[in-house]
Amino acid sequence: MSQVQRDGDQDRRFQELELALRLREREIELLKETVFAINSQLDLDTVFHLVADRARELICAETLLIPVVDTDCQHYTYRAGAGRNAAEIVGESLPLDYGVCGWVWRHKRPWWRGVLDELEPADRTRWEIEAGTLILVPMIGKNHFLGGLAGINKQGGGDFSQQDLSLLSLFAGQVSIAIENAIAFEELSKAKHTSEAYQIELHQLNNELTAINRELEHLALYDQLTQLPNRSLLQDRLQQALFSAQREEGRVAVLIVDLDQFKEVNDTLGHDVGDQLLVQVAERFSGQLRQTDTVGRLGGDEFAVVIPNADTELACHLAGNLLAVLEPDFDIDGMRFSVAASVGIAVHPQHGVDAGTLMKHADIAMYTAKRTRFGYTVYDPSEAVAQPERLSLVGDLRQALVNREFDLYFQPKVDLRSGTLSGVEALARWPHAKRGLVPPDQFIPMLEQTGLIRPFTLWAIERGLQQCAQWQESGMHLTMAINLSIHNLLDPQFITQVVPLLQRFPISRSCLILEITESVFLSEHAKLSNVLNELRSHGVAFSIDDFGTGHSSLSRLKKLPVSELKIDRSFVMDMETDRDDAVIVRSTVDLAHNLGIAVIAEGVENESTLNMLREMGCDLAQGYFISRPLPADDFARYLQNTEWKIPRST
Ligand code: C2E
Ligand code: MG
Ligand code: MG
Hints:
This protein is of the alpha/beta class. The chain contains 22 helices and 22 strands. Strands 13-14-16-17-18-19-20-21 form an eight-stranded mixed barrel, surrounded by four helices. A hairpin with a 2-residue loop joins β9 and β10 (335-337). α2 (44-59) packs antiparallel against α6 (162-221) and α14 (453-473) packs parallel to α16 (494-504). The protein is rod-shaped, with a radius of gyration of 51 Å. The mean pLDDT is 87. The site of one magnesium ion has 4 residues, from loops.
């Protein structure tokens, strides 16, 4: 070899070495750049993409893939890739012991040329089978196998070189820690995210719990219908008011308010209307009170008011206001009607010092108000004795029915024009072995509550008809008025039970008059109309009792087979002195006459009232002035001695 040739060879080798050196420098530069870039990155996807791109560039692979062991340590997933088909492969998960990666994980060393034969074709992944040549170096983190960097097919053909293996191994070693950190960071962020989500959820749950608690508290302390405080809260407020009253030697008034005839509203108009009425009543009551007062619903149609710093006088004033606020008609579903109430008052300390006693005494006073129809009543200790007996009375009722212990008293009704004693109203009495004569105001409501009013009314009709028949036998033709309860009229069996009674007694038609309280006529009009017409066809006449206390319209009444209107005694008793009452009586008489209905005034207690009624054109009268209700024997004597004419058969 000549010198020139030798020089030429040397030059070429120098050039090759220089090229190799430059390549090396470039590779090292690339490595440094990559490591620097990924070390400042915590976003895992960015790290993966950087690594995939640079690694592919480094070993001139057609495709570079990064399989990473999943957190379950059972699988690995191709988390990133670069080059041909990478997008198709990335995202695929495989069992950890599967494929070249599985081999690398098992052997803890890189996969390079030649080793491929060590893996059965069945154990290779799809692209591993298709791959011409493949290199996979492991990435080992601080403590464990992370996955690897896999190069598939050398660009321009051929195998990956020893240098590729060294470079990729070096690169894997450099980036492993960065990848491990990024994975840890990703998991941390996920955990943080989850914990934040948990915190938000927890916060929401807390809010819901607070709302539920508030709702529960509301349910426990407030009446759901009227939204007023319930019995518990009311008692609590009373207790607090009593504590401060006791400290300051002050007073506290308790009012118990019970609506009159609310049961009938419920029975005749339905519970829906009843509920709406209670809501409206609650609103009206609430509007009457001072900030410091508490009005609550005790249940049913019973309300109570706790008034701190109130003496009897103020309590009476407030009770009057509560009654007055009920006066304007209620309008429910287009129906207008009025509701009255009875109020019982008890004041600390004179009527009791503890909550229980005050409530009990206000309750007793309320019953007195109801009985006497006084509107409101202050507790009177002498009333207290009678109260507990109320309860035990209920127990005796059934027995009394079976034993026929009840009695009918008769009160005459007189025709003001002809001076004739036209008939009687039968009024029930209960001579009780221990309690003496129990008035109907006490036992009729109990009969109604227990459903015993049905057999009771049949008994009353039977007893009345028997008496009528007896009078007719002795030649006297008197009508017999029997009071009905709404329960009787709504009882589907009522007609079939009354008709046989009418047939049993040999009496002339038009002897039996059934009295129905006005409030019954508020609704159930169609149903009532059928019942009344059917009974009318059997000769029964109907009278509207206590007229003026409810709000039935006269024109509506006219559509029913009603022959008589009975003006409530509350208007009659004072009409002599109360101009308003006199006006009401007079206009009722006129209106009824225009409709062809006769008018009877009850509660006539003196002669001047009788004369006024006669002058107004009232048809009939009934009252203590004519006679008190009398037991049958006394009434027989009364009939013998009375100056009123008795209609006799000729
Ligand atoms: P009512 O049907 O309005 O009966 C009239 C009431 O007024 C009777 O009371 C009678 O004694 C009373 N009274 C009559 N004249 C006068 C008077 O001049 N002045 C005063 N202050 N009162 C007078 P009583 O007998 O206590 O009956 C009360 C209520 O009990 C009756 O009112 C009626 O609604 C009911 N009742 C009585 N007996 C029966 C019955 O057999 N069945 C039903 N369902 N209710 C009855
Ligand atoms: Mg009556
Ligand atoms: Mg009456």
